[in-house]
Amino acid sequence: MIKYLGSKRRVLPHIVSCVGALPDVRTALDLFSGTARVGHALKRLGMTVHANDHNAYAAALATCYVQADARRWQRPAERLIAELDRLPGEPGWFTATYSEKSRYLKPENGARVDAIRERIAVLALEPELEAIALVSLIEAADRVDSTVGLQMAYLKSWAARAHQPLALRVPELLPGKGSSSCLDARVCASRRAVDLAYLDPPYNQHSYLGNYHVWESVVRWDKPDVYGIAMKRTDVKERGSAFNRKGSIEDAFREVVRKVRARYLVVSFNDEGYLGLETVRSILGEHGPLEELAIEHPRHIGHRIGIYNPQGVRVGTPGKASNHEHLFVVGASVAERRALREVARAAS
């Protein structure tokens, strides 16, 4: 899966353990799905999962990793990816924008992205197969990009991996039913009743659309106007989230929690967010018994890189090297909360 700020790769075992401690969970909603890593893991457990995200690139990831059934799509995906991977490069909008005016991918790899994405556009594929092809392309480009994992900027010198040729792979598809959507979380929350809802909302000023605007443009293929050194889509300025603003995050979080229709609620929240943990506890506590697990993990490398100015001169001091992800479980019985505490002890 792609490099991603806020990825739950390190805390995923804890999330899975928490969910496993809750009985009779057969259906799940991943409301802010991002890379779909959590939805994918819950599907692997045998659950029927619906994954949602309001960004197009994340919705494509959800369609690939949660909605697509490997029993139906594995063979067609293998044939399609092999065909697309044989295409020679043909420079176009992507190459001009992200390889010449900026330095996200080397021009030869940018030209491959152009050729492959144009081919996908003319094939009129079924939604699942198109999403699989798009995810394969995004992940291939991610493996040869020249960033630290965010598209707020690119490296001044090419990363070593950027010199490798772009190569497509079939994403890891899972058998089983699933579904996906591309909706505002507050709209999606009330549309389906599930056994368990997992919420991992944005928690500070960093916009996922701004951080991954290149992937948004690859999926939408609308060849938008761009601005700044980072060549961001102009709609990054317009498509803001209430969760990225101090003045609106509390109301947005309260509303989405109120609208969720689930027996259990599992919420991931960072201790560096705009919303204080006491406020999170207060809001969640209104909806049932609350259990909490804190997990320490390293911060993104950007906390060190950001202390240098554009000329490479050190102008600051790195902040703390780690933070804590807090997992909150709402709605568990006394016995289930006891089992969750065992999970917490095993994780410490």
Adjacency order of strands in the biggest sheet: 3-2-1-4-7-9-8
Shape: globular
Query: What is the CATH topology assignment of the largest domain?
Result: Rossmann fold
Q: Please work out how many helical segments DSSP would assign.
A: 14
Distance between the termini: 27 Å
Kindly estimate the percentage of residues that lie in beta strands according to DSSP: 5-15%
User: Which runs of at least 5 residues are low in confidence (pLDDT < 50)?
Assistant: none
Can you count the beta strands? 9
Major β-sheet profile: 7 strands, mixed
CATH architecture of the largest domain: 3-Layer(aba) Sandwich
Kindly state the percentage of residues in helix: 40-55%
Description:
- β5 (226-227) and β6 form a beta hairpin.
- α6 (107-123) packs antiparallel against α7 (127-143).
- The protein folds into two domains: 1-68 and 180-201 and 250-348, 3-Layer(aba) Sandwich (Rossmann fold), CATH 3.40.50.150; 70-173 and 208-244, no CATH class.
- The protein has 348 residues and is an alpha/beta fold.
- It is built from 14 helices and nine strands.
List keywords for this structure.
single chain, 348 residues, alpha/beta, Rossmann fold, seven-stranded mixed sheet, two-stranded antiparallel ribbon, 14 helices, 9 strands
